[in-house]
User: Fold this.
Amino acid sequence: MQQPSPPGTSHEPRPAGVTPSSVLDLNAYLMYATGKAARRRLTDALTAHGLRLWHLTIMAMLDDAGPLSKGELAARLDMNQSDLTRTVTDLDAAGYVECARDPSDRRRIEVALTPAGRCASAQLNTAVSSTEADLLAPLTDEERARFTSLLRRVHVHLEQDRAGNAIAGTTAERGGPAEAGGLGASAGGLRRMGSRPSP
Assistant:
């Protein structure tokens, strides 16, 4: 026999999209939920072109920085080497990149964007811009610019933290103390690697 529900108890499902204010106060949740939605929409836009987010990211990096070795690409994008190799293989098969061994170092495989890759990159930028405009529709142009600026500042901070940890780890492996001012050195290294400075 089913027991009666206590007074004030409702079995009605919570309406979709209604997030409690206590949860909306958590920046970590907002970043997660917004990032998840953005990735889903971006994935849909890229799938229409037979590509994924990593394909777009590598093409954008090569378009911006020029030819890079696979090792440099993996390091700059903080990407697993095996994932990087598979993604580059996909782009190579599509004719968007070409891979060649460095004559001065046969172990080094350099990846470069092809003319077809540049054309595809431009088309993808149009699709991505449309997706981004839809995602940020509630914001004015000024708010979007500010939002982008803030995201870049947080991203650069995290990059510097990652680089600092990598340097500290390398120093620890060598058995030496971490250098004072390592964060500044890491930031300089990131700038040399092509990371955009904070606006």
About this structure: The mean pLDDT is 78. The helical segments are 21-24, 27-47, 53-65, 70-76, 81-94, 115-135, 141-174, 182-193. The CA atoms of residues 54 and 87 lie 7 Å apart. The longest strand covers residues 105-113.
